[in-house]
Amino acid sequence: MSAARAGTADGAGDERRDPLRVGLIGYGGAGRGIHARLVRQAGQRVVAVVTRGRAAQVHQDWPGAHVVPDVDGLLERRDELDLVVVASPTGAHVEHVTAALDAGLHVLVDKPLATTADDAAALVARADGRLTVFQNRRWDPEQLALVDLIGRGALGEVHRFERRWERYRPQPQDRWKENDPVGGGLLLDLGAHLVDSAVQLFGPVREVYAELAARTTPAVDDVFLALRHESGVLAHLQAGSLVGAPGPRTRVLGTAGAYLVTAYEGEPTPFAVLDDAYEEGRRPGEPVHEGWLVTGAERRPVPAPTGGHHDVYPLVARWVRGRAPVPVDPADAVVTARVLDAARVSADERRVVTLA
Questions:
Q1: Which single residue of 163, 175, 253, 344 has CA 20 to 30 Å from 240?
Q2: pLDDT one-digit tens code per residue, 226-256
Q3: Does the model's pTM come out above 0.70?
């Protein structure tokens, strides 16, 4: 059984004294809302941004940063950049990553790396060690806690892993992720996180069964994946936009007990309201925790782990400077893409797909 650890940002002070100069492709929900925020938190600098409609936001957030209308304009400033962050729509990842790599730059690309495994593998082959993928959910508290619990055998032999990313949003938003049937949809978006988490914890996938539907949008918005890992663990992964009663966020079953998380980023699910035994709020005297170890009627709070998403960019900086290994091996993203490709085949043909 595999339980690879996410890195922590030891030595981050060196990177603050020598901050990365970041070029950012895209300044929407991912570019501004996630990447730019984490860049600032790590003491690094956005010096150029590709955007056609958000120049005022860039100038407000990063006075002195250059705003350019396309990737060619960004790469004309390659001598001013240490890292290119690709936060454009998924369907443009191959084009944008290829251009940045060919310019000789290090690249951090938002997940998924590409829409197919073949395209993802071609990018990795081209990268020559200058590519990593933003699988930031490896640094979620529940994932860090699980890596620790499994690593020290606290659950015994694990036989089932469940994770849900569910919400009730019957009225879709007007954004590319929900309207692009090729690069959008929850399979490529949240599915890439779910599969990466399962593989990080339990190793290679042998069999894939999937049920996919587009219920409220042109792109897939209802995902169920059943993965059988070579380790013997069965993973059930779900993502949906039309789920009026979301289930527990994470449930892991082992011979020595279970790990249970019923809230997501501090927001309780209806499951937490319906079952007071697993309500996420702390009882008097309980420490800050991240879910519970549960054995029947007994529950023990799991101490909240150190680390989080704020560790990602310091680790990226150390990698770019040659001081540390790549934070996320892009070959892992190819593995994830092969599972997602198999999921499409499984759903289309209504069968279990075996991976070589």
A1: 253
A2: 999 999 999 999 999 999 999 999 999 999 9
A3: yes
Whole-number Å distance between alpha carbons of 181 and 187: 11
Q: The tokens 């892992």 sit on which residue?
A: 332
| CB within 8 Å of 350: residues ≥ 6 apart | none
Contact 103, 83 (CB under 8 A): no
